[in-house]
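Researcher: I'd like a structural prediction for the single chain below. Treat it as a standalone chain; there are no partners to consider.
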Amino acid sequence: MRFEATVATRHLVSGRGQTLLTVGAVAIAVTVIVFITSLIQGLQARIVNDLIGSLPHVTVKPAERPARPLSQAASDRPGLATSLVQPSTERRAHFDDVPRVEQQLASFPGVKSVAPAIRGQAFLIHGAKQFGVSVSGGAPALQERIAGLQKDLVAGRWLELGPDEIVIGVRLANEAGIGLGDRVRLISSEGVDGVYTVAGLFDTGQNSTDLGAVFTDLRTAQRLFRLQGSVSSFLIKLDDPFMANTTADAIAGALGHDAESWMREQAQFVNGLRAQSSSSAMISLFALLASAFSIAAVLIVSVIQKSKEIGILKSMGARNRQIQLIFGLEGLIIAVAGAILGCGLGYGILRMLAGVRQVARFGKVDQLFPISFDVAIFAGAAIAAILTTLIAATLPARRAARMDPVEIIHGN
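Model: Treating it as a single chain, here is the predicted structure.
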């Protein structure tokens, strides 16, 4: 092995121009893969966070009541066909055993946070203006794990929310002419009304949330929707939001509750993310193929240029396997050097872009280029480049091993 490694190293050093060219080809391929994949993953993470950052990944609601045969009502309504089934549109309005259900949901794999909540529709009235809003009530500390409102809070307070206090979006506040500390009236779909103090204002960047969402504590929501001691749903946040369908199906199958996944509700958006990922994979594949062809071409030229040296080595007793190993080692050295250089270049470019900032809403500073610094991306790009380079070096290595030393020495 020492002999083959020595010869391979000398070949690379003597043809340093070709060596630099092939190392550069591998490095560029790795840089392109790292750059494109990191940028797209970072962009997708930002889009997902902007879209569902304040929304649960899975929402669990009470199951619908089972259908019942019409025969059960035949005595009350003669003439009904007893073989038919009466579908039920009724749904249990709430969960009563909140701690038990919360514990069950928290035990599912991948579940990061579970928040008992009450969600319902209401009218917000301020002066002569009236707005339809969606009320979400729950313990602020638990809701924060789902909605993440604290980072979007622009005025007032949220985690220290007290009884009869609410938090609303800045767009709703602007539309209704509401200021921090103002008193507004809420009338729920249950007909319960009350006057509440606006304790905080948030800006998520999502118009539907900023214009139509109201957050309050659990007891206030229970009183507003007549659910003393109960909740209407459980909100779940997952470690991986793209496991929402799997987790929702598992919950529905095991517990019999209705489990709604954000991926099914935003199916078109998820398809767009998949198209982005496919485009990234295609770009990376073409970069690897371009690198492989250039490496194969350069190594084939190297074999032709070093044909006499190969003939001499074989006449001195070098076996075909050793000749093939020499050029295989050349490919490996080129691949490893190019992968390291490409990862370094990619990291440097990404780090530079990550430092570019832009002014976001309400004076907040945000990244212009969202970057995902994932070690798996760098490792995957390096491994893919090394494997592709070794495959590209196979053809010239076999060509060198098949050369006839007698013909080479005689100039044929």
